[in-house]
Amino acid sequence: MRQVPPASPSAAAKAQLLEELRKLEQEEAQLKYAQTLEAFDQIVEVLTQFGSRFNAKQKSQIASLAMTGKTKGPLSSTGEVVAKYWLPHSGETWSGRGRTPRAFKAWEGTSSYKEWKSKHPDKRFPLYPG
């Protein structure tokens, strides 16, 4: 039967350090909570004292901060827009947003467009098959 060696001094030191770290993290959480309560009291005091003097824009900004917790930044692009239309003869695609691409405008004047349009009177361009 094999005996397990006794815990080394470094293992005991590591356990002690972990316990100290846990206590420090708990203390940090308590301090942050106390700071949050103090900040809330200050905010309520300022709003009570000066709230009636804020203009509509300032009140709106305060309300939006209270609801989300952060200011609204510029809208970010979510990426590429999915193609809605395509030209079967060229493979050109278009999302349907913004100005009509030149290839689509050029195709509108052709006989193949008129033939396609007679079969699909309710559509502007062929839908992308995807």
From TrEMBL:
GO molecular function annotations of the record: DNA binding
Origin superkingdom: Bacteria
SUPFAM superfamilies associated with the record: H-NS histone-like proteins
A matching Pfam family: Histone_HNS
InterPro entries (UniProt xref): H-NS_C_dom
Ranges of residues in domain DNA-binding protein H-NS-like C-terminal: 75-118
Protein name listed in UniProt: H-NS histone family protein
Organism: Xanthomonas campestris pv. badrii
